[in-house]
Amino acid sequence: MDSLKNAATQFILTPEYHDLLSIVKGFRNGLVYGAKIRFPHALVMTLLFRRSNFKDMARFVLKATKQHARNLAFFATIYKTLLIVQRRMHGKERPMDSFLAGLVGGYMVFGENNNVNQQIVLYLFSRIMMGLAKLPVKKNVITEPTQTFPIFASLVWATVMFLFQNERDVLQPSLQASMQYIYIDSNRWNTLKNFLWHNK
Length: 200
Known about the structure:
- This protein is an all-alpha fold and 200 residues long.
- It is built from eight helices and no strands.
- It has a domain at 1-111.
């Protein structure tokens, strides 16, 4: 048994196999991370918002977990493979290589419009926007770091309120409903009861 373990260790430490094994490990890490993130989220959301039998609820949780884990695993595989291919083609890794690999992987894996992909893409989009808000400070376009977040926050709220008032149907239904409740339903009441305790 020790000789088998030693041979396996020797294999994974052999430099010429590093690129291939990094793809395998990327697949593994995407699978594990996706399952660790999605399972508790899907479980809580199912328990809070789904009304069905236990079997259907369990099936929904497992399906969402499988899809999230599989998508991250396949994206990692495509992304890492394309990085290696480009590095070998050009002799070095270039700054745009990650963009191109992400572009192809994102289209192939996350291009299908479904709930899990939407949540992942929206999560990434919000983090990208935060990163872009910090970029002017890093590049010394804005010298005071505290200036960027207020500008970012005001632009986000200005945009969402404009869309809600003028192009509401392009917003997600859950966002439309929450904004309807806060900003429109608060304009109507005819008794003390539906002013203070009940919305309608």
